[in-house]
Amino acid sequence: MPIRDIVIDASPKEGIEQLFSWVDRFNERLQARLSCVSYAWPKSDLEEALLNPLGTAGFERRMEMEIASVRDAGTKILKSPDTSWCTGIAQPDDAILDHLHTADMLVSIAGSSRQCVTPDPIDLAVRSGTPVLRLKSGIKAAPIGVAVVAWKDGAAARHALHASRALLALANEIQVVGVGDEVAMRRLDEVVDFLRRSGLPARAIHLPDPKGRPGEVIIDHALASGADIVISGARSERTLRDRLFGNATRQFTQCSELSWYMTG
Questions:
Q1: What is the arithmetic mean of pLDDT over 219-243?
Q2: Under DSSP, is residue 214 helix (H, G, I), strand (E, B) or coil?
Q3: Reduced DSSP (H G I as helix, E B as strand, rest coil) percent helix, strand, coil of the chain, to 5
Q4: Is residue 9 located within the same domain as residue 120?
Q5: Does residue 228 sit in the same domain as residue 152?
Q6: Which stretches does DSSP call E strand in the chain?
Q7: What does the DSSP 8-state code read for residue 124?
Q8: Number of domains in the chain
Q9: In the prediction, which pLDDT does 58 show?
Q10: CATH code of the domain in which 63 resides
Q11: In three state form, how does the secondary structure of 16-39 look?
């Protein structure tokens, strides 16, 4: 299915200009509708502010300034005429979740804010079922060169593979990577054949896992191969932070040097 509706996590954070620039370049071919959701909520001193009317006004002004700065940057960078904004002072996770039920993809970026709470992309992927593309910090607006599909037999990997085909169609090279004894080379070849029949340039790679840490193996391989994006799935039977290959979800999200695409 083509990507027609993209939600942008425009909550105040570091790297917001890089996020807008990447999406603008990415959307040149897609011409998707862009929905920028920019909600701000303070990290600290909220209870004290609520007990003091002057403090409440002060935190509201700070949040409004953060949102205005983000919107100003997005308005200058995003060229698509089909771009809308939804802004407010509230917890950003719930605000973004409300926009994901009919979206094809959420795009965010690795970054934090000294002033504001930043959304949890794993939680949003799992709660909404909408694929989330979290860009690496410092990303440049450039085409997708190498995409790594992290494969482990199961519904999560299948869902991620099918959901990401429109994104994979924009990559120059696709590596289907399996790790250790949990996946056979035969299965990786089947996934490659599936992608090739869709006209996608894929090849299979099976890596050893002597330490029993498949997440680290995939991250090391992706970094060494210069991968622009890692495709992965999340398993719902585990806690939010342990849904991909044991604790690999935590490892992926903590690695700000990689962009990853995940489905819940």
A1: 76
A2: helix
A3: 40, 20, 35
A4: yes
A5: yes
A6: 5-9, 33-40, 83-89, 105-109, 132-135, 146-150, 173-179, 202-207, 229-233, 260-263
A7: H
A8: 2
A9: 77
A10: 3.40.50.620
A11: HHHHHHHHHHHHHHHCCEEEEEEE
Which tokens sit at 190?
Answer: 């089947």
State the burial class of residue 197 (Cβ atoms within 10 Å of its Cβ: 0-12, 13-18, 19+).
exposed
What are the residues facing 87 on neighbouring strands? 38
Q: Is residue 15 part of a domain?
A: yes
Buried b (16+ CB within 10 A) or exposed e, 154-163: eebbebbbeb
Q: Is the dihedral of CA 38, 39, 45, 50 positive or negative?
A: positive
Question: Alpha-carbon dihedral of residues 235, 237, 242, 246, nearest 10 degrees?
Answer: -80
Residues 131 and 161 in one domain: no
Confidence of residue 214 (pLDDT cuts 50, 70, 90): confident
Least confident of 82-86, 214-218, 219-223: 214-218
Query: What does the DSSP 8-state code read for residue 191?
Result: H
Domain encompassing residue 47 = 5-135
Phi, psi dihedrals of residue 165, rounded to the nearest 5°: -60, -40
As a residue count, the chain comes to 264
> Cα(113)–Cα(118) distance, rounded to whole angstroms?
7
Whether residues 126 and 16 share a domain: the answer is: yes
The first and second tokens of residue 242, run together, are 């342990």
**226 and 122 share one domain:** no
**What tokens were used for 57?**
């006004």
89 and 156 share one domain: no
The residue written with tokens 């085409």 in the block is 143
Poorest-pLDDT segment among 12-16, 78-82, 181-185: 181-185
